[in-house]
């Protein structure tokens, strides 16, 4: 089944309100046949930048290749905790090489996942620590995956202190969010915020300082309300931004503007703010 188009109401809201999807997996095989169309829909929906995130060496290399082909795409390189047993001297050397590529703007996703435990906890901690050290050495932000592991994740972050980073697909409490912010991290909203009935997540997102909130899709995963069961894609990040705006009791355009500025600051995305200002002017037309 072909992906649904962006809802007309949401598309109308996007006029003059531009977004960054800070966490995508556009190298996933589910985009093999229509990646150009997916990226086209993202741009039509008002996205001015997308970050393609690596989760092992192969996907990190692929992320670098995609970013090199598109002026509005950047990459991060890293090894997910599910693959922590693959982290050795050779893997870290390759990550170090990839991190030096000109369109690489972060390390990750990396972190701890004690929910699935596909790698032993000790190996996860070692892999995470090694990547935190690489982020510090390169002066790059770290993209953190933490599932059922928040205390251990925060402990390692406190001891390693990367220059900055993001709690990807944040799904914790307000206390967790503020503890992350205190360690220099941003908080990223994703699809669960659009459908979670328990208000814990919404309250946590409401507690985050304005300058530390960003949005993502984590596509092709975590499709938002209205698209569950479908392949996710970057155009749907506007639905996440709408949910964040509701949680924080602000307007959609304010939320879009704030999260875009924050994403540019976090990942040091050159030229995006200038390009987004020009694009917004073009979309809204000249002043009356």
Secondary structure elements and their pairing?
Layout: H1 8-13, E1 19-24, H2 35-44, E2 47-53, H3 57-69, E3 73-77, H4 89-99, E4 104-113, H5 121-138, E5 142-147, H6 150-160, E6 165-167, H7 174-182, E7 185-189, H8 192-195, H9 200-207, E8 213-215, H10 237-248, H11 252-267, H12 272-284
Parallel strand pairs: 1-2, 2-3, 3-4, 4-5, 5-6, 6-7, 7-8
Helix pairs in contact: 3-4, 7-9, 10-11
Features:
globular; TIM Barrel; disordered N terminus; 288 residues; alpha/beta
Task: Describe the protein in words.
The protein contains 12 helices and 8 strands. The protein has 288 residues and is an alpha/beta fold. Helix 6 links the parallel strand 5 (142-147) and strand 6. The chain has a single domain, classed as Alpha-Beta Barrel (TIM Barrel), CATH 3.20.20.140. It has an 8-stranded parallel β-sheet with strand order 1-2-3-4-5-6-7-8. The longest helix is centred in the middle third of the chain and has 18 residues, at 121-138. It has helices at residues 8-13, 35-44, 57-69, 89-99, 121-138, 150-160, 174-182, 192-195, 200-207, 237-248, 252-267, 272-284; strands spanning 19-24, 47-53, 73-77, 104-113, 142-147, 165-167, 185-189, 213-215. Helix content is 45%, strand content 16%. Helix 3 packs parallel to helix 4, helix 7 (174-182) runs parallel beside helix 9 and helix 10 crosses helix 11 (252-267). It is globular.
């Amino acid at each position: 089944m072909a992906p649904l188009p962006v809802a007309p109401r949401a598309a109308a809201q996007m006029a003059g309100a531009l977004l960054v999807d800070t966490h995508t997996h556009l190298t996933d095989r589910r985009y093999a046949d229509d990646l150009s169309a997916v990226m086209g829909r993202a741009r039509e929906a008002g996205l001015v930048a997308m970050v393609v995130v690596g989760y092992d060496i192969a996907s990190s290399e692929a992320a670098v290749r995609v970013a090199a082909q598109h002026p509005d795409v950047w990459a991060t390189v890293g090894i997910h905790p599910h693959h922590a047993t693959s982290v050795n001297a050779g893997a870290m050397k390759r990550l170090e090489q990839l991190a030096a590529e000109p369109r690489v703007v972060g390390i990750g996703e990396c972190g701890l996942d004690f929910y699935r435990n596909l790698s032993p906890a000790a190996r996860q901690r070692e892999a995470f620590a090694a990547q935190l050290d690489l982020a510090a050495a390169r002066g790059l932000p770290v993209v953190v995956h933490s599932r059922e592991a928040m205390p251990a994740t925060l402990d390692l972050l406190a001891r390693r202190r990367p220059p900055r980073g993001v709690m990807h697909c944040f799904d914790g409490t307000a206390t967790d969010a503020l503890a992350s912010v205190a360690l220099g991290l941003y908080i990223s909203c994703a699809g669960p915020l659009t459908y979670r009935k328990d208000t814990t997540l919404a309250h946590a997102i409401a507690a985050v300082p304005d300058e530390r909130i960003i949005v993502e899709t984590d596509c092709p995963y975590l499709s938002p309300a209205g698209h569950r069961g479908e392949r996710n894609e970057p155009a749907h990040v506007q639905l996440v931004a709408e949910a964040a705006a509701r949680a924080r009791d602000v307007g959609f355009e304010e939320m879009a503007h704030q999260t875009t500025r924050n994403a540019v600051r976090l990942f040091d995305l050159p030229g995006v703010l200038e390009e987004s200002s020009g694009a917004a002017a073009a979309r809204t037309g000249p002043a009356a």
